[in-house]
Amino acid sequence: MLLSLVKVLVAVAVGVPLLMWFFQERLIFFPRPLESRPAISPNVEPITVAAADGAKLRGWLVRSSAARAPLVIYFGGNAEEVSWMTQVADKFAGWSLLLVNYRGYGESEGKPGEKELHADALAIYDYARRHSGVNSERIVAMGRSLGSGVAVRLAAERPVRGVILVSPYDSLVEVGRRLYPFLPISLMLRHRFDSLALAPQIEAPLLCLVAAEDRVIPVAHSQALFAAWRGPETWREVPRADHDSISGESEYWSSIALFLKSAL
Question: Which superfamily is assigned to 2-263 in CATH?
Answer without folding.
Answer: Alpha/Beta hydrolase fold, catalytic domain (3.40.50.1820)
